[in-house]
Amino acid sequence: MPLKSGIYTIIHSSAEADTNNFTYNQVYAGASTTATINGKTVTMAGGSTIDILVSSIAGTDVYVLGDPINVLSANPSLSNYPNP
Fold it and tell me: Which of 18, 40, 54, 69 suits 9 as a labelling partner, its CA being 20 to 30 A distant?
């Protein structure tokens, strides 16, 4: 989820996309190209975007925009005291 609607914190090329650690919600074509998004082939014009939850991506001159997946690596109580 973007910090503000339409504002994302990271951009990765399709080759760098890491859906285990990031969530991507937009695809950007750097040039006119064909991208494979979630298993479907899509022809994109240069400079165009598609708003979609990306689970897989492939293509040349294709970039994904999104945010890191938040992971809590602390005591779920967020307390410094032992659990009751």
Answer: 40
How do the domains of the chain map onto residue ranges? 10-68
Tokens 């999104």, residue? 66
Terminal CA-CA length for the chain: 34
| Dist. CA 65–CA 22, nearest whole Å | 9
Kindly report the pTM of this predicted structure.
Answer: 0.78
**Alpha helix (H) ranges present in 5-82?**
none
Residue 49 confidence (pLDDT) above 60: yes
Coil, strand or helix at 15: helix
**At a CB cut-off of 8 Å and minimum separation 6, what does 12 contact?**
18, 22, 24, 63, 64
Q: Are strands 62-68 and 22-29 parallel, antiparallel or unpaired?
A: antiparallel
